[in-house]
Design brief:
With about 180 residues, this protein is an alpha/beta fold. Helix 1 packs antiparallel against helix 3. A hairpin with a 5-residue loop joins strand 4 and strand 5. The longest helix has 17 residues. Helices cover about 25% and strands about 15% of the residues.
Length: about 180
Amino acid sequence: MNKKNYETKNQRRARMCQYIKECPVRWRDPKWVVPSSIEERNRTDEIIIHCTATPEGHDFSVAEIRQMHLAKGWKDIGYHYVILRDGTVCEGRPENLVGAHCQGHNYRSVGVAYVGGVDRLGVHPLDTRTRAQRDAMTRLLRLLLARYPKATIHGHCEFANKACPSFDVKKEYGVNKE
């Protein structure tokens, strides 16, 4: 008989605590008011990785991304998490709310973006992630997969005609379980 290994609630809770310690998050500015019109997300079965499409070596803050998204007429920053060039993981839109990062998938996904994604001239897609960003992304994905064990990891380019996130997500993070 093939018996599966099931994790107890206490084991899962202990694992989650460890991942949270490994991946500290800078919480969003408390002055940012979340519009009450943004719906809560009821399920999470995808984690979608993006880049901000900013030139290699250029810093871009969460506040700047939020302002850019608001200028487009969005209700708030579209991503749930943003990874800065120094590896700092910042909260964007609260994780329990529907994102605005991948049309047709926002109601079922968490959006993670890293700052960068194009060459120094801002013309060609390029994986510009720093070592700190790569490490932070691995830690954040580990945390998110612990929260949402049935979720699969995808690049934005799998759902839109874009180069985003400018690297091969399937190659980097393995084959999705389906």
